[in-house]
Write a structure and sequence with these properties.
alpha/beta; Rossmann fold; 3 domains; eleven-stranded mixed sheet; six-stranded antiparallel sheet
């Protein structure tokens, strides 16, 4: 039995719709995140538990709930007795299943008959996907990407630094035949540096002068002489590594020897798997908008090459933003692309483009999905722009604090439960699901990447 008391004002980050109820409950108390049925003589409604207070002297607890459905149970400032019980499974399913069964991610933890579905129309927001090592983050993201491929026509570009998603267009043995057939109809292209049919290469000359200089680690103020020489010569450069240095030294320009030494010392000409040298370019293929394009960055030995590819692709998409052609940009290990303090001009250039896309890209159809183990290692200017959250097991208090600041609409007590999640469980919250809820992810159709290496055992 419980009695509502006057509701407090909605907290910062609370959704603009719905009503907040403050209940004093005696007896068994629901947990944060639980869906409950609140009933009185006037009727009943489903509420979402946001916060559970400490026990009072009489054993009762104050519970804050958010009204999730219309109904006749008490709200506003009315004081009357109500009953609070776990919400029926069928009503939970109605709230969380979503409009398309193909977009089901998994089942509600504790209510196996209730599916959790993505609302595809809300993927036009930036999404943050996180979980510590071993939480099942890579597997779960593969589930979501496969669902989006099957049920939508939203093009996807995956920046894949660990080669975990190169099997996105394949199906694993035992997969549901109907789902496998649907996936087979989608055009999934994997680009690799040495693939003769689908090479992962970009053109240095297509980069802006500012970003070409970033590849060469030049600052317009700190390296003003070399930078100025480069700006004056850049129009005569060609994508031919074998005579690049000779072109520099034959130009007759003062200061060119220092610039040539910089290029040689950095070894940029040795990035033979990065530069297209006038051949096929990754940005041209992405322009054709396959259903999914996986950039297999795991084939590069140098992080700088991964950054150069990301820079070229992001710059090209941003320059063409006026076309307003939707695309979902998925960054695995996103902390390597948008850390708070990159240590090279190339890293700064990539981070700054991501900040710009996070702040302004939505209106042009450039949407981010950032996946990482460490939320606190993501630049706040990117994280703060994310409206959708998937959180898997997370033990770090600093990372949970960062998420609490960025996602004020998710109850803190629910975020704190992440340290107790088992592998494959995830808190999903934001516009792309009906309500914040903990779900157990479903099986994948595509082969899994990022699996653990088994420990060798004695015979």
């Amino acid at each position: 039995m419980s009695t509502p008391t006057p509701p407090p004002p909605a907290g910062r980050g609370s959704p603009p719709d719905g009503r907040q109820l403050l209940l004093r409950i005696t007896g068994e108390t629901p947990a944060a995140g639980e869906l409950v049925e609140i009933a009185s003589e006037e009727g009943s409604l489903i509420g979402y538990v946001e916060h559970v207070g400490p026990a009072a002297a009489d054993g009762s607890r104050l519970v804050t709930a958010r009204q999730a459905t219309a109904g006749g149970a008490p709200a506003g400032r009315a004081r009357r007795e109500v009953t609070v019980a776990p919400a029926p499974a069928e009503r939970v399913a109605e709230l969380l299943a979503g409009p398309d069964p193909q977009l089901h991610l998994g089942r509600v933890v504790g209510i196996p008959d209730a599916s959790v579905g993505l609302v595809a129309g809300k993927m036009n927001r930036h999404t943050f996907w996180c979980g510590q090592s071993g939480s099942g983050k890579t597997y779960a993201l593969g589930v979501a990407l496969k669902r989006l491929l099957s049920a939508t026509r939203l093009p996807i570009v995956v920046f894949d630094p660990n080669s975990d998603y190169v099997g996105l267009g394949e199906t694993r043995p035992g997969a549901d035949p109907a789902e496998a057939a649907t996936l087979a109809e989608r055009d999934v292209v994997v680009l690799r540096p040495d693939d003769p049919d689908h090479p992962l290469r970009v053109q240095f000359r297509k980069l802006s002068v500012k970003h070409q200089a970033a590849v060469l680690r030049m600052d317009p103020i700190l390296d003003r002489a070399e930078y100025n020489t480069f700006v004056r010569l850049v129009g005569s450069f060609y994508d031919h590594a074998d005579d690049f240095i000779d072109q520099l030294r034959s130009s007759g320009e003062p200061g060119v020897e220092t610039l040539a030494q910089r290029v040689e010392n950095l070894g940029v000409l040795d990035w033979t798997g990065t530069w297209s040298l006038g051949g096929a370019c990754a940005t041209d293929l992405i322009e054709e908008r396959p259903a999914a394009t996986v950039l297999d960055l795991g084939q590069y030995d140098r992080h700088e090459e991964q950054l150069a590819i990301a820079l070229a692709v992001l710059e090209d998409l941003w320059e063409k933003r006026g076309q307003r052609r939707p695309v979902l940009l998925v960054f695995d290990e996103a902390h390597n692309f948008c850390p708070p303090e990159p240590d090279t001009p190339l890293g700064v250039a990539v981070r700054d483009l991501l900040i710009q896309i996070a702040a302004e890209g939505r209106k042009y159809g450039l949407w981010l999905l950032l996946s990482t183990q460490r939320p606190s290692k993501i630049h706040s200017g990117v994280l703060s722009q994310c409206d959708n959250l998937t959180l898997m097991r997370m033990n770090s208090p600093a990372d949970l604090d960062e998420l609490a600041r960025a996602f004020g609409f998710v109850p803190r007590q629910l975020l704190d439960q992440a340290s107790r999640f088992v592998q494959g469980e995830a808190l999903v919250a934001g516009g792309f699901v009906g309500l914040p809820v903990v779900a157990k992810m479903r099986d994948r159709v595509t082969p899994e990447g990022g699996v653990d290496v088994r420990v060798p055992m004695a015979d």
